Each structure stands twice: as structure tokens, then as C-alpha cells.
Amino acid sequence: MPRQPTMTDIARRAGVSRVAVSYALNGRPGVSDVMRDRILHIAREIGFDANGAARAMHGAAAPAIGMTMRRASSTAYSVEVFRREFVSGVQGELMARNTGLALQFVSGAAEEMDVYRRWHAERRVGGVLVCDLEPDDPRVPGLHDLGLPAVVVGGPAPGGLLGSVGSDDATAVAEAVAHLAGLGHRRITRVSGPAALLHSRVRDEAFRTACRAAGAVPVVVGADYSGDAGAQATRRLLSSADRPTAVAYDNDVMAVAGLAVAREMGVAVPGELSIVAFEDSPLCQAVRPALTVLRRDIVAYGARAARQLFEAMDGAEPRAVLDHTARLTVRASTGPVPGPAAGG
Questions:
Q1: Does residue 334 share a domain with residue 203?
Q2: E runs forming strands in 177-273
Q3: How far is C-alpha 302 from the geometric centre of its chain's CA atoms?
């Protein structure tokens, strides 16, 4: 199916911003009569479908927004707190605007781009939220060229081609390391998320930097956010000759699984091992000992991403927004380093 003309195409030909195109197509003030006529002429010339703009002028519901997930549904949605609460925040914003969410699971970037092209060609969505950004991510230029409004979650997007919503993960990770170092820990391990993800790399590097500054030797172990991966990593770590005295997990599911393994192996928490989780959840609060966490308002994060996407759909220029930083909430799973390892 041929690519449908977009407001971005009109903006390029007219030499103006997408905001100006949106104002002209929707009959809003903010552009001159001459420029409005030029934009409308270009829209007719390239066959731009103004049905969406016309519906908006008459008060109809905004088109749906789209979102894909690459992880298995049982892990990404029903268990892992981030995806569940993020989608909840998005849905809350959509309900207030009488707008729907198109959600689809995909196996990789190629299939994901095919989904975006189909949604765009069929006018099923007015924009998309893009998750799990990777270095040199092909989705960023692909969506920009497609002309489909998009906001990257966990950005910023390379080159500023798309808008983004992110948070200062490096500062959050450094706070967790400082807490553990302040308790005397020097053998600290991070059980990370998938290495291909940009935010995993940012957190890994922040962890290494903070450990070195505290006189600790940084060790990073890769995992995939699942409970099985968290359990396997913990079992290997606690079976090693030089096992860590503290482990920082990159999500709540892996941390809870790690706590269970420590209990099975007879390793006392926090007497012999301190545990920190990135993200909070009812699981983190229900287990004993309750887990120390890096906590943020994920629901509000999702709502903010949705609001920014609506701005993009209305023609706003791409911008990188920094959301609030996760802060440490200290609970019972962290304590002083065991005596023999203090300071070493």
C-alpha cells in the first residue's frame, strides 16, 4: 500500500513547522492568510487526507494511539510493574480524551515497523509511543520518515528526530550505590536488564562510575527482567567464592526472585546480603524483609508520555522532556555489611 501524505510532508514543502500546518488545516489563528492558502494548496496537491482534522474541528474523538511490546505478555504486562503501571497511566490520559489504545506484541524491530506502517496506512492511530530504545535504533529515523507522530519513552531520541520522555536514571542508580556504600558494602553487584537497551547501558555505566567513586569494585551481570533470570543470576552469585554483600536488581521481579533464592540457600537478608530493586511494587512491600527500592510514579510517567504524544499529533516540534528522578525508599532489605568484609 502506498505511503499516505502527512502533515510533515506538507511542512517540508511549505518550509514551515508542523505546528503551522496544523493551525492552517484546523482553521486556527497563528499563520498568515497567504501561508494558510499555500498550505491548503499543498495539502490538496499531494492528496493529504484531512478527515482527521475535520473530525477534530467538529469535536469528535481523537484517533487512537499505538504502542507495541516486545516481551511475552505474561512477563511484560501481568507481572512486571513498569509496563503495567505505565500502560495504566497512558490509559488514564486517553480516557479523559475519549481516545483508544492499540496495543500489539511483536517479536522484533522489523515486525514493529511493519505494524507502524500498517497502522499509519489504515489511519488506525494518530501517533505511537516507542519503548525500549536501543543505540542507533532504526525505529527513530523510520518513524520520522514515515511521518507518524511518535514519542520515545526513556529517551532522548538520537538526533532529536522524535520527541521523548525520560528520567535521570544515572542519578537514581548513583543514589542506590551511595546508600549501599554508606553501609560499608564494597562487593556490590548489579543484575541488569537486556544489554541491547539504551537505558540498561546508561544504568550500567552509572553503576560502575558510582562504585569506583565509593571504592567498590563494580560487577554487572546481564539478565532479561524475568524472575527466572533473576533467580539464576542470584544463585550463581551466591555460589561464588567471592560472593557480593549487596545486589542491586534492575526491576522488582528479579529482586523478589533473588530474595527467594537467598532464603533457599540460607543467606540472611540483610544480615549477609543487602538487596535493592529498581522500581517499586506491591511484591516489594509484601515480601519479608520488605525491599529497599528506587521508586518513581510510573502512572504519572505514562500519563506525561501520552500528553506529549498528543502535542506531537497536534503538530508540536519534537522536544525531550525529563520526568522526575526515581528516589531511594529504604526498607528492611538493606543493612550494614557483614563484619569480616567491612571496608574491604
A1: yes
A2: 187-191, 217-221, 246-249
A3: 9
Q: Say yes or no: 131 and 108 in one domain.
A: yes
Is omega for the bond preceding 156 within 30 degrees of 0, making it cis? yes
Q: Pick from 44, 8, 47, 27: which is nearest to 315 by CA? A: 8
Residue 249 lies in a domain: yes
Range of the domain at 277: 169-295+328-341
Strand partners of residue 278: 294
CB 125 within 8 A of CB 63: yes
| Angle, in degrees to the nearest 10, between helices 33-46 and 18-25 | 90
Domains: count for the chain: 3
HEC readout, 242-269: CCCCEEEECCHHHHHHHHHHHHHCCCCC
pLDDT at 3: 59
- Are 105 and 248 part of one and the same domain? no
Alpha carbon separation from 248 to 9, 94, 176, 312 (Å, rounded): 47, 34, 8, 36
pLDDT for residue 211: 98
Q: pLDDT band at 62, cuts 50/70/90?
A: low
pLDDT digits (tens, 9 = 90+) for 240-281: 999 999 999 999 999 999 999 999 999 999 999 999 999 999
CATH of residue 135? 3.40.50.2300
Q: Which residues pair with 294 in a beta bridge?
A: 278, 328
pLDDT, tens digit, 9 for 90 and up, residues 2-60: 556 777 788 889 998 877 887 787 777 778 888 888 888 898 888 876 554 444 434 44
How confident is the model over 193-245, as pLDDT tens digits? 999 999 999 999 999 999 999 999 999 999 999 999 999 999 999 999 999 99
Is residue 334 within 8 A of residue 245, CB to CB? The reply is no
pLDDT of residue 342: 46
- Indicate the length of the chain as a whole number: 344
pLDDT above 70 for 94: yes
Q: Return the sign of the alpha-carbon dihedral for residues 232, 236, 293, 285.
A: positive
Phi-psi region of 170 (alpha: psi -120 to 50; beta: other; left: phi over 0): alpha
Strands 125-130, 217-221: pairing is unpaired
